[in-house]
Amino acid sequence: MKSTFQFSLSTLSQGIRRSNRALVLAAALGATALVAAPVTYAQTKIGFVSTERILRDSKPAKAAQTKIEAEFKRRDDELQNLANSLRNQAQKFDKDAPVLSESERIKRQRQLTDLDSDLQRKRREFQEDFNRRRNEEFSGIVEKADAAIKTIAESQGYDLIIQDAVTVSPRVDITDQVMKALGG
């Protein structure tokens, strides 16, 4: 009859052998996965395109930005002049307020409030119009970029092209090729 100590020792050694087999099996599977992974990777060609960079740095994007800024320059200048006028009138009111009659002070406060409301409304309209116009221009660039990406993918045998990722290796970044296809 085995002692309790010997029985425990025997059970422990059997458990270690089982866990060693499991470790050996896991190692074998892991080695197989490592060998198979490059084969799978070699069969899949992946590329990356930075849409942000295309919409910021490509020639068509820069041209569109310049065009939009020129279209909205006059309105932007008007808004700046209106803001400066409001600021000057508010400063003048602050200086004159102590000597103004109650009715005159209330009247000028209303005028300033109306001017401020008008300025805020015009700024909102300006921003909405600017954004709408910018989206119109840049949607055409995005369509052209998508067509260029598709052409590059087909001609160079890409299986997958990703746009906008958190981190990307420079060896899969084809943004420069797309920008060249767009003309810069």
Keywords:
184 residues, disordered N terminus, mainly alpha, 2 domains, 5 helices
Number of distinct beta strands: 2
Strand order of the largest sheet: 1-2
End-to-end Cα distance, whole Å, is: 88 Å
Which architecture of the largest domain does the CATH hierarchy give at level 2?
Answer: 2-Layer Sandwich
CA-based gyration radius: 35 Å
**What series of H and E elements makes up the topology?**
HEHHHEH
The number of domains: 2
Strand content: under 5%
Can you tell me the CATH topology of the largest domain? Protein Binding, DinI Protein, Chain A
Percent range of helical residues: over 70%
- State the major sheet: 2 strands, parallel
Total of helices: 5
What structural category arises from helix and sheet content? mainly alpha
The CATH homologous superfamily name of the largest domain equals: Skp domain
Low-confidence sequence ranges: 1-13, 15-19, 22-29
Mean pLDDT: 82
CATH class category of the largest domain: Alpha Beta
Choose one word for the global shape: rod-shaped
Describe the 3D structure.
It is a single chain. This protein is mainly α and 184 residues long. It folds into two domains: 43 residues; 138 residues, Protein Binding, DinI Protein, Chain A. It is 80% helix and 4% strand. The chain has five helices and two strands; from the N terminus they run H-E-H-H-H-E-H. Helix 2 packs across helix 3. The longest helix is centred in the C-terminal third of the chain and has 55 residues. The N terminus is likely disordered.
